[in-house]
């Protein structure tokens, strides 16, 4: 891959996906597919552990009354997580807190229940709605997350028994006392609307879930439900005000040192607010979404911050997410209000250009000078005639070249969707040829 990050961001970019195993990533709800790695277990402060069983992190607090576990990892991480917990403490599992309802954080608890543990499960009230949304959109989620069937044949959690549901929910703040020690749960919004972060004041430890990950906040994912950049900034500032000594983040490495933590959280808030302000200013001035995104620039001190590399999401996507939050779906161009089908538009462009071949030639000649523009021309060629092998190759290769240059995973993954379209067109062509020969 051609992707490089500035020197000061490389460590965080490398750590971003932890012990990610693509086999597990494609069967995220399979209890039979773990990360295949020995979990990383670090004692962050006395009786407090950072555990990384796979792509995600878990926080463990030991108290005299029992264990407090923050998050439970992916379904397949459950057994390894249980072992990791038992390698440091034999106290009973008293309480589990879900930082949010995502597939990689709230699904490993089954292994503890099967081992006879009977914890209460505490979460923000919107986690219940999040799980219900998973059931409602199982097909959509399986597809956009590239999921394959697990041993039970399911590609996504789709029935009530696929979840370990919260037994106790809260809406804004909840204080727990375990073994005489205070733990404060605070609701925030960020990547999701159901987020909780946990503050252990006597230990100076904050378990942040995905509100802290060591990379640019995932606040703009192009295919997912609404994200909350403004509230994310609020939460970052609120966390910074506590001056934690340690943050156990939802992904990436353990973060230590109050000064570095405050610097990171404040930079994160400034970064998000910068994008939100730009989007709102543009919308209020009557600019179209494309114009707002096109004119977005990020100050160097934020773009180069060591803990905020755009390794997953990127500023343009966050900006569009803010626009979506406050405006409708229309891009503002009259022709796209009630548009002609894209293939028909592409055929008209091909006709004007003198054929699909002319579009393919033009796409290739643009590829070295303006790859972004070349993508459009290659797409017109492919949509004008999906059966044309030159258009297929051009579309596939130019989009792949673009994907390889992008730093963010979301951009790479979604540009590579072109591959599946081309593969589908090729196999449809092959099937038609076979049936024609009969
Ligand atoms: Zn996550």
CATH hierarchy, class of the domain at 17-212: Alpha Beta
Radius of gyration: 24 Å
Distance between the termini: 44 Å
Chain-averaged pLDDT: 96
> Which geometry do the CA atoms define?
globular
Helix content: 40-55%
In percent, how much strand structure appears in the residues?
15-25%
InterPro entries: Alkyl/aryl-sulf_dimr_sf, Alkyl_sulf_dimr, Bact_Alkyl/Aryl-Sulfatase, Metallo-B-lactamas, RibonucZ/Hydroxyglut_hydro
Domain Metallo-beta-lactamase: 55-251
Protein name: MBL fold metallo-hydrolase
Organism: Blastococcus carthaginiensis
Which labels suit this protein?
single chain; alpha/beta; Metallo-beta-lactamase, Chain A; Serine Threonine Protein Phosphatase 5, Tetratricopeptide repeat; seven-stranded mixed β-sheet; 17 helices; 43% helix; binds zinc ion; RibonucZ/Hydroxyglut_hydro; MBL fold metallo-hydrolase; Alkyl/aryl-sulf_dimr_sf; Alkyl_sulf_dimr
Q: Can you characterise this structure?
A:
This is MBL fold metallo-hydrolase. Residues 55-251 form the Metallo-beta-lactamase domain. There is one protein chain. By secondary structure, the chain is of the alpha/beta class. Among the domains are: 17-212, Metallo-beta-lactamase domain (Metallo-beta-lactamase, Chain A, 4-Layer Sandwich), CATH 3.60.15; 340-437, Alpha Horseshoe (Serine Threonine Protein Phosphatase 5, Tetratricopeptide repeat), CATH 1.25.40.880. It contains 17 helices and 13 strands. It has a 7-stranded mixed beta sheet with strand order 1-2-3-4-5-6-7, covered by helices on one side. The relative contact order is 0.09. Zinc ion is lined by residues 56, 102, 104-105, 210, 250-251.
């Amino acid at each position: 891959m051609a992707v490089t990050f500035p020197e000061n961001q490389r460590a965080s970019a490398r750590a971003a996906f932890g012990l990610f195993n693509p086999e597990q990533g494609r069967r995220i709800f399979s209890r039979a597919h773990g990360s295949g790695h020995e979990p990383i277990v670090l004692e962050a402060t006395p009786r407090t552990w950072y555990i990384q069983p796979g792509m995600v992190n878990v926080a463990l607090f030991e108290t005299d009354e029992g264990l407090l576990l923050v998050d439970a990892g992916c379904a397949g991480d459950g057994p390894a997580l249980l072992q990791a917990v038992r390698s440091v403490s034999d106290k009973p599992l008293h309480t589990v807190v879900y930082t949010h309802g995502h597939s990689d954080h709230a699904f490993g608890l089954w292994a503890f229940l099967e081992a006879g543990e009977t914890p209460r499960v505490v979460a923000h009230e919107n986690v219940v709605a999040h799980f219900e949304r998973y059931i409602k959109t199982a097909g959509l989620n399986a597809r956009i997350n590239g999921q394959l069937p697990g041993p039970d044949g399911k590609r996504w959690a789709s029935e009530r028994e696929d979840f370990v549901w919260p037994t106790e929910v809260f809406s804004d703040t909840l204080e727990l006392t375990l073994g005489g020690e205070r733990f404060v749960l605070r609701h925030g919004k960020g990547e999701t609307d159901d987020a909780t972060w946990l503050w252990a004041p006597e230990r100076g430890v904050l378990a942040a879930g995905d509100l802290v990950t060591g990379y640019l906040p995932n606040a703009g994912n192009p295919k997912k439900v609404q994200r909350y950049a403004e509230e994310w900034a609020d939460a970052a500032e609120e966390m910074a005000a506590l001056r934690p000594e340690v943050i156990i983040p939802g992904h990436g490495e353990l973060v230590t040192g109050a000064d570095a933590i405050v610097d990171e959280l404040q930079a994160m808030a400034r970064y998000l607010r910068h994008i939100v302000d730009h989007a709102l200013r543009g919308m209020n001035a009557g600019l179209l979404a494309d114009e707002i995104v096109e004119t977005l620039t990020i100050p160097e001190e934020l773009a180069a911050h060591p803990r905020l590399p755009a390794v997953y999401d990127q500023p343009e996507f966050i900006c569009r997410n803010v626009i979506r939050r406050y405006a409708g779906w229309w891009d503002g161009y009259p022709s796209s209000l009630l548009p002609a089908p894209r293939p028909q538009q592409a055929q008209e462009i091909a006709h004007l250009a003198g054929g699909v071949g002319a579009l393919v030639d033009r796409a290739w000649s643009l590829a070295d000078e303006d790859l972004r523009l070349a993508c459009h021309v290659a797409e017109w060629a492919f949509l004008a005639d999906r059966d044309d092998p030159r258009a297929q190759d051009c579309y596939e290769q130019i989009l792949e070249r673009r994907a390889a240059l992008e730093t963010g995973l979301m951009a790479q993954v979604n540009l590579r969707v072109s591959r599946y379209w081309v593969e589908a067109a090729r196999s449809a062509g092959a099937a038609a040829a076979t049936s024609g020969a009969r």
